[in-house]
Amino acid sequence: MTATLTVAVWKGDADGGFVEHDVPQRANQTVLDVVSHIQRELDPALSYRFACRVGMCGSCAMRVNGVSRWTCRTHVDKVARDGRLTIQPLANLPIVKDLVTDMAPFFDKWERAEGPFVPSETRPADDDFAVVEPAGKQRSWADAAQECIGCGVCYSSCDVVSWNPEYLGPAALNRAWVQMNDERDGGRPARLRAVSGDAGCHACHSQQSCTLRCPMELDPASSIAGLKRLSFKAALRGKL
Amino acid sequence: MNRANEVRLWAVMRLTSMVLAFAVLVHLITMIVVIRNGLSAEEILARTRGSVAWLVFYSVFVVVAAIHGSIGLRNIVREHTAWRGNSLTIAAAVFCVLSLWLGLRAVQGLFA
């Protein structure tokens, strides 16, 4: 006889509730496997998102037993307590239906944090690539922060986001930090203004839930601390 | 308040917290040392009356605590309520002045 998991899954929008299912437990089963089993065998109307199943696309993030995680790389035997799982949509985002959240507010904040690269020159006449010294300090800071997959786990884990809905959040600020360390970028002064103040890096309490939960093991809390340093220096020089 | 001034307030809060870390440590150690033989007003006043060192120390303590506390209170209010804008900044400034007045009066009482 196979062991059975008791899985409570969120159904409906913000006013919805949990529905319990019994799911057969298997070896090496991921939480995404469990959700897929429920959708295929037990509740075809269940809505959820996934794409790559291997931790690259960042679309399958949910809250599992209260903790935001990438479900495709989360093994059931690491997170189930007494054979029970509770699966909810990400926090701090509007629920569209079941396990699907509206990610628009999350990515709108990347725009507000001036996340996109701003070219500082057109392509040179000799058609050469811009050279960025690989061992440079700024390049290494950008390297350490740039592998974000945009899953929203940090945003869902951040208490400051839940208190201050205007707060840009760890992912958008981490993105801004990457671009602040791109020596080719021409939008750095405007970006620093965009990420300073009450809705920006200064709202961060350095509780570091983002760093603790990031599935890519990035360190958004340190990125935010870096932005605070840059912002302070700019304010001292009267350039903010 | 504009963005640059917000960042300056943030910086002032960080700087005052460094002074406070030192001042609180001195204050706590002094408290632990002096109450070993029981606590009496006479003993405290005998130590602080006419002492310029304690006058300077507690005056600095009061000033940084008033500044740090009022900026922090403003941040907490903004984070947990809908109150923003100039009225909140003025209220925080009033709190700062009140803390300074009460604190410096107490310091004066210790010194003179």
Automatic annotation (TrEMBL), chain A:
<dbReference type="Pfam" id="PF13534">
    <property type="entry name" value="Fer4_17"/>
</dbReference>
<keyword id="KW-0003">3Fe-4S</keyword>
<keyword id="KW-0408">Iron</keyword>
<dbReference type="InterPro" id="IPR004489">
    <property type="entry name" value="Succ_DH/fum_Rdtase_Fe-S"/>
</dbReference>
<dbReference type="GO" id="GO:0006099">
    <property type="term" value="P:tricarboxylic acid cycle"/>
</dbReference>
<protein>
    <recommendedName>
        <fullName>Succinate dehydrogenase iron-sulfur subunit</fullName>
        <ecNumber>1.3.5.1</ecNumber>
    </recommendedName>
</protein>
<dbReference type="InterPro" id="IPR001041">
    <property type="entry name" value="2Fe-2S_ferredoxin-type"/>
</dbReference>
<keyword id="KW-0560">Oxidoreductase</keyword>
<feature type="domain" description="4Fe-4S ferredoxin-type">
    <location>
        <begin position="138"/>
        <end position="166"/>
    </location>
</feature>
<dbReference type="GO" id="GO:0051538">
    <property type="term" value="F:3 iron, 4 sulfur cluster binding"/>
</dbReference>
<dbReference type="Pfam" id="PF13085">
    <property type="entry name" value="Fer2_3"/>
</dbReference>
<keyword id="KW-0001">2Fe-2S</keyword>
<dbReference type="InterPro" id="IPR012675">
    <property type="entry name" value="Beta-grasp_dom_sf"/>
</dbReference>
<dbReference type="InterPro" id="IPR036010">
    <property type="entry name" value="2Fe-2S_ferredoxin-like_sf"/>
</dbReference>
<dbReference type="GO" id="GO:0008177">
    <property type="term" value="F:succinate dehydrogenase (quinone) activity"/>
</dbReference>
<dbReference type="InterPro" id="IPR009051">
    <property type="entry name" value="Helical_ferredxn"/>
</dbReference>
<feature type="domain" description="2Fe-2S ferredoxin-type">
    <location>
        <begin position="5"/>
        <end position="93"/>
    </location>
</feature>
<dbReference type="GO" id="GO:0051539">
    <property type="term" value="F:4 iron, 4 sulfur cluster binding"/>
</dbReference>
<keyword id="KW-0004">4Fe-4S</keyword>
<comment type="pathway">
    <text>Carbohydrate metabolism; tricarboxylic acid cycle; fumarate from succinate (bacterial route): step 1/1.</text>
</comment>
<dbReference type="InterPro" id="IPR006058">
    <property type="entry name" value="2Fe2S_fd_BS"/>
</dbReference>
<dbReference type="GO" id="GO:0046872">
    <property type="term" value="F:metal ion binding"/>
</dbReference>
UniProtKB/TrEMBL annotation, chain B:
<feature type="transmembrane region" description="Helical">
    <location>
        <begin position="12"/>
        <end position="35"/>
    </location>
</feature>
<dbReference type="InterPro" id="IPR034804">
    <property type="entry name" value="SQR/QFR_C/D"/>
</dbReference>
<dbReference type="Pfam" id="PF01127">
    <property type="entry name" value="Sdh_cyt"/>
</dbReference>
<keyword id="KW-0408">Iron</keyword>
<keyword id="KW-0349">Heme</keyword>
<dbReference type="GO" id="GO:0016020">
    <property type="term" value="C:membrane"/>
</dbReference>
<dbReference type="GO" id="GO:0046872">
    <property type="term" value="F:metal ion binding"/>
</dbReference>
<keyword id="KW-0472">Membrane</keyword>
<protein>
    <recommendedName>
        <fullName>Succinate dehydrogenase</fullName>
    </recommendedName>
</protein>
<keyword id="KW-0479">Metal-binding</keyword>
<dbReference type="InterPro" id="IPR000701">
    <property type="entry name" value="SuccDH_FuR_B_TM-su"/>
</dbReference>
<keyword id="KW-0812">Transmembrane</keyword>
<comment type="function">
    <text>Membrane-anchoring subunit of succinate dehydrogenase (SDH).</text>
</comment>
<feature type="transmembrane region" description="Helical">
    <location>
        <begin position="85"/>
        <end position="104"/>
    </location>
</feature>
<feature type="transmembrane region" description="Helical">
    <location>
        <begin position="55"/>
        <end position="73"/>
    </location>
</feature>
<keyword id="KW-1133">Transmembrane helix</keyword>
